[in-house]
Amino acid sequence: MAFQRNGAALAARIDAPSLPLDTILLGDCIAELEKLPAASVDLVFADPPYNLQLQGDLRRPDQSLVDAVDDAWDQFESFQAYDAFTRAWLLAVRRVLKPTGTLWVIGSYHNIFRVGASLQDLGYWILNDVVWRKTNPMPNFRGRRFTNAHETMIWASRGADAKGYTFNYEALKAGNEDLQPRSDWLFPICSGAERLKGLDGRKAHPTQKPEALLARVLLSASKPGDVVLDPFFGSGTTGAVAKRLGRHFIGVERDRDYAAAATARIAAVVPESEESIAQAPAKREAARVAFATVVERGLVPPGTRLTDERGRHEAIVRADGTLGFGAVIGSIHRIGAIVQGREACNGWTFWHVAEGRTLKPIDAFRDVIRAEGALAG
Ligand SMILES: C[S@@+](CC[C@H](N)C(=O)[O-])C[C@H]1O[C@@H](n2cnc3c(N)ncnc32)[C@H](O)[C@@H]1O
Fold first, then answer.
1. Which of 55, 64, 196, 315 sits between 20 and 30 A of 219, alpha carbons compared?
2. Which GO terms describe its cellular component (predicted)?
C-alpha cells in the first residue's frame, strides 16, 4: 500500500514511470518488492534487522537501563529463521536491481557475516566491505569485551560479471584532497538535533543511521535522478538524504509509526541546489582531448622532456603530438608502455613535466583544455 508521496521537485530523469517514486510502501518488504518491476532500481541501501542476541537487560554502572534494540522486528527464532528471511529479501532485491545496480547492506557482528554468506550464495559479487568506525560508540558497560565501535557495510553488484555500476571515483578522490577514497569511514552515531524524537521526547526509532553515512553512500554509488530503494526504511534516513541530494527514493517499512515519522521528516527536507549536486563527469566520459592539442596549444611545447614520476624514464615531445624515445616514435601511451617493458600504459598519468622542483602529470594540461570547453559550453 502506498503510504505517502512527497512532492519533492526533483530534477530527475524518470526511467520507469510505473515506479512508486518518492513513496513509502507500508508493508513487508518481500511482498512489496514483488510488486515492483524487475531491473528498475539503481541502488539499494538495506539496514535489515540485526537479530541482536541480547542476554537479559543491559545496565550502565549506575544501574540505569540501556535503551538497547529489543523490538519485536529484530527478533528471530533461530539463526536458520534469520537466514531464511535474509535469503528471501536478498532475492527480492536482486530481482528489482538494474544490471548496473548495486546493493549496500549494513550490519554488525550479530548478522553481517550471515548476510555476507547468503548474498555470495545468491550470486551477488562483493565489491568492498566498508567499515563505519564510530567516533562516539556506546561503551562496553560490563568491561568484558572490546567496545563495539564499528559497523560493516557490504557493497555488492548483482554478479561477478556486472559492468557499468556507478562509482564516482574521481569526485570522491577530488573531495578527499586528491587521495584515493578508503574503505574505512569515520562518523559519529546519530545524536543531537538530527535524532528524531517522539512527542514523549524519546527516540522515534532505535537504530536511526547518521545522514552523513547515507550521503557518502549515495554520493559514492549513485547519480542525481537515480532510484534508491530502502527495504527497511525505519525513520527514513535514506529517503531524507536521497531527497536532499536529488535522487528518488522508494522506502518499505512495515511499522506504521516509523513510516509516519519518516514521512514528516522527509517533507521537511530542502533539496540542495541542482548546481551543487550535479554529477561530475568521470574522466573516461569527459570530452576527448588529444595530446597533439595540448602540444599545439603550447601547454607542453615541442622539445619538452617528459619523465615518469620518479625520473627513471624520459622521452621528448614532438611537434605532431607524438613522443620520441631514441629512434622510436609513438603515442604517449605506446612510448610509456615501451620504456617500462609493458603491454599498455596510460600516458596521461605516466608522463610528467618538471615545473620548478615538482613534477606535474600531463593529464593536468588536458584538464585545462577541458575546463575551457566547459566554460565555453
Ligand atoms: C535497522 S532498522 C532501519 C533503520 C533505518 N536505516 C534508519 O535510519 O532509521 C530496520 C527497520 O526495518 C523494519 N522491518 C523489519 N522487518 C521488515 C520487513 N520484513 N519489511 C519491512 N520492514 C521491516 C523495522 O520496522 C525497522 O524499522
1. 196
2. cytoplasm
